Every structure is written in C-alpha cells, then in structure tokens.
C-alpha cells in the first residue's frame, strides 16, 4: 500500500438491498430494479489534488492527459493536435444551442491534473479540491497504489442514496431544501452564467457540502466519478447477468410507458474500439435545464481515455 493510503478517510457502507435506477428521467437509468449489495468501504470524499500528488511523487506516474497521443492511431491529426492535453470547460458569452457541447469544451494543450486550467495554471489554493483530468487508467493506478479499487456502479449508487429512497434526490424531493444548496451543481443559466453553489464556481473543497446519512461527502455534484462497470445503454443487462455482489429481481414499472423498451440494448456504447465506463454523481456543471444528473440514479458514459475538468474519482475496498 502506498504511503498516502492512511490519509484516506474510509466510511463503512453496510450491505443491503435497494432500488437501483429510475423510470422517470433518462432512458439509460431504466429499468428500475432491486439490487443487493455486500458491505464494503468507500473513501469519504473524492480523491483530492493533495492525495493524488503524493501518489505521483512516490511513483512518478504520468497521467493519460500528460502523454502524447499515439500518432499511428490518429494519422488525420497534425503534430500539435497530438500533443498532451485535455478538455477544459470554458463558459460561453451567452445562450447557445445546448445540443452542441463543443461550444463550451475546448482542447487545451498542457492541461492536466496539476495544470487544471492549462499550462499557466497551478494547484495553489486548491489542494483540497478533487483531482480532475483523470482518465480511467489513472484512477485505477491510484486505487492499486492504496490497496483499493474503484467502486462498482451499484455500490456507488447505493452509497450515494445514504440508506434512503431518493425522491429524486438523496435528501428529498427539493433540490435546495430551505434554499440551502446540498451539492455543488450549476446555479444559473448554463453554460454562460453560474452564480455558484455556496459561492463555489467550478470544483469546491471536498466536504464543503453536507454528508449523507452514511457519512459520505460529494457523492452528488462537484465532480463526476469513475466506476468499474462498462457502460450499457440500459440496466437490462443487470437483470440478466448479475454477479455475486448483487441480486437482480423483477423490474419495477411506473406504468407511464417510459420504462424499458426493445429499442434499449445491452451492449457497451461508443464507437468501434472505444471502451466506455460509467460515471456517477454529476458535477459542478450539471444544470436543471441541461444535465439533470445530480441524482443517485443518474449515470453517464465516458471513454476510458478521456479526461476533463469535471471528472475525478474515489476508491473502495471490500468489507467494512
């Protein structure tokens, strides 16, 4: 185990059964079904810049964003496009067509975990923020170093619920009960006006928002987090191929016709050769009119080799 393993705060998550997924929002969250989870432990917060820096200092690990793209696989790109870098969120000047994500994401050469906004930026003042620009392999490397692993999608969702049945949020039916933000999500008009959650625009220090009933912080909002599962376009495969750590039974239908249909398949999504994993939790960029994914049931696909300014991770280990 790496030296920084002790710096992680571990939260025991009791085993139990819960309703996974939703029939009410995005198609890939269906069908809602019962899952059984064995007891495990989860890091109380996403991995921070300080914790990841300790890993890099000891191992000299180089993240995917810091490596040049292999020219043999991207012959259509020039040398500049193959340089190390990552995607950085950049607010637009005003309203734009929300169907075109390229209007607020830009490729920045030199952007990486310790240069989050680009080559001129630093980690000064944000040591306790979640590390970002993390690709799947980077998260796996850190997890191995601390003698841990990435949580499964079911484990993450179970932990994010905090022992409650989301309606639709882990804390209840209102996004901001009493006008108090419960998670770091977008406030204002996406993607050009953000008033900040409790004053934070972008990532916030881990633990800045209330923990759930299990004592876990930032399972919702702040940064998207990698899970170990391959992404599929529905939960149908969970009802057919469940492992020893889960039990799938009959799906629950809401009766409104928004449930599973024959058009939803079980195959990993993405282009040929592009492996996609599940991201959970939503991020500081999730806004009600664009990305209503700051809910435990929400999920998103991400190519394993992709890194951005709103993707981080936390780690898990077997047993409580």
Report on the architecture of this protein.
- The chain is of the alpha+beta class.
- Helix content is 11%, strand content 17%.
- The protein contains 4 helices and 13 strands.
- It has helices at 49-59, 136-145, 153-161, 236-240, and strands spanning 10-13, 16-20, 33-37, 40-43, 85-89, 105-109, 188-189, 193-194, 224-230, 276-280, 299-303, 311-312, 316-318.
- The strands form 5 sheets. A 4-stranded mixed beta sheet has the order 11-10-9-12.
- Strand 7 and strand 8 form a beta hairpin.
- It is globular, with a radius of gyration of 19 Å.
- The chain starts with 9 loop residues before the first strand and ends with a strand.
- Residues 243-273 have low confidence and may be disordered.
- Residues 9-317 form the Sulfatase-modifying factor enzyme-like domain.
- It comes from Leucobacter luti.
- GO terms for molecular function: formylglycine-generating oxidase activity.
